[in-house]
Amino acid sequence: MGGTLITVAPTGAEADKAKVPELPVTLDELVETAVACERAGAAVIHVHIRGDDAKPTLDQGRLRDTVATLREATGLVVQLSSGGAVTDPESDRLAVLDAEPDMASCTMGTVNFGDDVFMNRWGFIVELHRRMQDRAVVPEYELFDLGHLPSLARLLDEHGLPFGGHVHVDFVLGVPGGAAGDAATVTAFAEGVRRYLPEGTTFSATGIGRTTLPVMFASLASGGHLRVGMEDTVQFARRTPVKDNAQLVKRAAEAAKLAQRPPMSTAEARKLLGIRD
Ligand code: KMH
Ligand code: ZN
């Protein structure tokens, strides 16, 4: 069945640095965590950046610097978040692609997001997909709910395959307002991938908060890949905060090895995802 693609999402837009001091928010902290996570078995990094005030930002200059610095320091596939924070306008989210990442996320529909709404209009999704095709950026389609699967099928049918021709999706489970983070839900999504999406589509799964472990094991058992990181959980276990992102990647790599599907190298990940040279 091949190896396991491990994506690390080290920062996100939600956790508060004042409450989680280990969260990487400066470029130096991000690079340090990226190097450690690559060593621990990650092949892709899903990046949200922060400003000097440690709050999320989509500042163009910072995004460009971040992409260039991560490329110099690591072999990781650099995936920028086009989701940003729930307050980010569509124009800024589209402009993320100007920083020329290898990949970018593309969420397949609007979802309640805790007390907020993560807005993803159909017209916005189409524009993001088209711009990624034009700029040779490989999308990771983020699925927060089962309805996002047929929406992606519609997108591919009406607007064509992504750059590189390979479809890769990520199930983001356990968000309050989205699909639950449990094994039955992973199975339902995996079945939906087979039912709605092109043959050869690959998936990873991430469980938010305490759903991290059930989602991780269910994804491995279903032939899926993994995303872990402090964007998704800041608790390693009950009453035990995460030490750093590499700790989460190491645990994922150990689980992947136990499942007889050891972590993919960055070169293998680039080939699988169809990343441009
Ligand atoms: N921060 C969330 C509102 C993505 O990166 O594309 C959106 C998110 C998804 O994290
Ligand atoms: Zn994200």
TrEMBL record:
Cofactor(s) required for function per UniProt: Zn(2+)
Top-level division of the source organism's lineage: Bacteria
InterPro entries in UniProt: Aldolase_TIM, BKACE
UniProt KW DNA damage keyword: no
Pfam family of the protein (one): BKACE
Coiled-coil zones: none
Protein's UniProt keywords contain Transmembrane: no
UniProt keyword annotations, A-Z: Metal-binding, Transferase, Zinc
GO molecular function, one term: 3-keto-5-aminohexanoate cleavage activity
PANTHER family for the chain: 3-KETO-5-AMINOHEXANOATE CLEAVAGE ENZYME, 3-KETO-5-AMINOHEXANOATE CLEAVAGE ENZYME-RELATED
Record-given protein name: 3-keto-5-aminohexanoate cleavage protein
Organism classification: Bacteria, Bacillati, Actinomycetota, Actinomycetes, Glycomycetales
